[in-house]
Amino acid sequence: MRSEPKPGLDTSIFMDVIENGDAMARTKLAVQLAALLCAEDTSKADSAQVVPVVLKLSVDPVKEVRRTLVNGLVGLLTLHADILFSIIADDDDVALPFLAATPALNHWHMLAVLRVGDMARQETVVLRSDLSKESLTYAVKSAPLEVCLRLFENLALHLDDRDYHTLYTRFGQVPEMVELLLGRPNLPLDIRILQAKRASNRMQQLMAERGWMADNDASELVADAEETAILRILVEASNDELARAIPFLVSKKMLTPSIILRAAAIGEMKMVQWSLAHLSGVGLARAHELMMGRGLMGLKSLHSKSGLPQSCYGLLMAACDVMKDAKEEGLPLDPESFGRRLIEALMTRYENMQSAERSKNLEFIGRFAEDRVRKIAKRLRADMVRAA
Q1: Which residues contact residue 60 at a Cβ distance below 8 angstroms, ignoring those fewer than 6 apart?
Q2: Which of 117, 196, 285, 370 sits CB 3.0–4.6 Å from 121 for a disulfide?
């Protein structure tokens, strides 16, 4: 004998409550229907049948009825899209807590809110720990500044290099964004370098506008500040970061001889090695071998291939010799100790070095070394000039 199909829910009684019941009755109905939708044994057919009723409750003129319904539905894993967006369109005090907590919000829903929602709803979405990759990409490319700033408050998010570059391109002139970007440990080095360059340009412009000092003096001061900032970034970089940063600097014509000499003057020979290797077109290990060799031809060949000015060679030679001595002695040298040894090497070795070249190398140290070492170099150079 064939069994009779189960009759569906009679929703007319629900509609009668909505149309004729008072607020208390509609509130009770909201509790009942939310419980029905949350019950594990409720069939898909029954859930579908009550959707129109729940939709009406979601736009009830009494906020307490709507709030009761929302509180009952907030934990549902799936929710009819019409109901979901009806709740999201409610007053902020009802909609935003729901939007922040509901697990029923999939990546399509998130994208829809980011595209057409107001700023409060967009900010709520980007703060969700389950923000989808598609939604993150959309927010980074298209969301307003205020929404993008909130991304940095979401500790569950992972911003990649492309995200950082997009944000910097869009908002690199906004101090609040720049501060947040610079505070990220995984920010690409090229952005840090570009920001150092941009900051120095602003400094130079400000000095020119206000006439604080002569143009030549201002340019030299700004160049020193810029290169010092860039060198500090490179010194703290990992090998993987340097592998990307050095070619970037070359492409922007920012890997200047003075930056390389500045690194050599304070003993940052890893930076010198990476620079010479890239400029010379040799491997990193080969560059290290040529720099550490006791003969002169190794470094001379490397320097020749690098395209650096001949005037750089003497200081690089002395820096490599100091590095080799320190390695043999097993002594780590801080910038001041390295600089002092560099001066000692330049003044006591290299019999074939002309006085003019020694003087020029002391001038380099007087510009690029650690502060105390600079003073010593300047004093020695002045003595050499007087003696001449």
Answers
A1: 18, 26, 30, 66, 69
A2: 117
**Tens-of-pLDDT digits for all 388 residues of the chain?**
344 434 567 789 999 999 999 999 999 999 999 999 999 999 999 999 999 999 999 999 999 999 999 999 999 999 999 999 999 999 999 999 999 999 999 999 999 999 999 999 999 999 999 999 999 999 999 999 999 999 999 999 999 999 999 999 999 999 999 999 999 999 999 999 999 988 876 665 666 566 655 556 566 667 788 898 999 999 999 999 999 999 999 999 999 999 999 999 999 999 999 999 999 999 999 999 999 885 556 899 999 999 999 999 999 999 999 999 999 999 889 999 999 999 999 999 998 999 999 999 999 999 999 999 999 999 999 988 887 6
State the maximum Cα–Cα separation within the chain, in Å, rounded to a whole number: 123
By C-alpha distance, which of 161, 157, 172, 87 is closest to 126?
157
Return the SS3 of 35.
helix
The CA distance from 117 to 136, in Å, is 15
End-to-end CA distance of the chain: 122
**DSSP labels, 92-120:** HHHHHHHHHH-TT--HHHHHHHHHHS-HH
Q: Name the residue with tokens 């006085």.
A: 355
* Cα(102)–Cα(78) distance, integer angstroms: 9
* SS3 per-residue string spanning 287-334: HHHHHHCCCHHHHHHHHHHHCCCHHHHHHHHHHHHHHHHHHHHCCCCC
Counting Cα atoms < 13 Å in the Cβ hemisphere of 103 gives 5
Do the Cβ atoms of 361 and 335 come closer than 8 Å? no
Residues 96/100/102/107 CA torsion (nearest 10 deg)? 110
Burial (CB < 10 A; 0-12, 13-18, 19+), residue 290, is buried
| 107 C-beta neighbours (distance < 10 Å), count | 14
Which tokens in the block code for residue 258? 């003075």
For the chain, the C-alpha Rg in angstroms (whole number) is 34
Cα 314 to Cα 316: distance, rounded to the nearest angstrom = 5
DSSP state of 7: P
Residue in 244, 249, 209, 251 with CA at minimum distance from that of residue 226 = 249
Let me know: does 212 contact 218? Beta carbons within 8 Å.
yes
Is 204 within 8 Å of 219 (Cβ atoms)? Answer: yes
